[in-house]
Design a protein that fits this description.
With 93 residues, this protein is mainly alpha-helical. It has helices at 4-7, 9-25, 37-55, 60-92.
Length: 93
């Protein structure tokens, strides 16, 4: 029996791989995970708007690229949350 998530394994891999490429290509802009969470969210909303626009185009690669950008801002936000979560015990003592 195939799990539903296995249906999307290739899709997850494509988004992840494109996201890695985009992260490297944009590394000259600095580390997005160092931005304040509010700024990351503002940038994320901008990328979602670009994804909406890309979905209306015939350039399917553009959809994947914009999805990868959305992914990267989500990763940056979650990366911060994980760091804060792991550091909470240190701050409580």
């Amino acid at each position: 029996m195939m799990l539903i998530s296995e249906d999307y394994d290739e899709t997850f891999a494509v988004i992840r791989d494109m996201a890695k490429v985009k992260m490297v290509m944009n590394s000259h802009k600095g580390r997005i995970e160092d931005l304040p969470p509010k700024e990351i969210l503002d940038l994320l909303y901008g990328e979602v708007a670009e994804l909406v626009d890309a979905a209306d185009e015939d350039d399917l690669r553009h959809v994947i690229e914009e999805a990868a950008d959305v992914h990267n801002f989500l990763v940056a936000l979650v990366h911060q949350a994980i760091a804060r979560y792991r550091g909470r015990k240190k701050n409580e003592n």
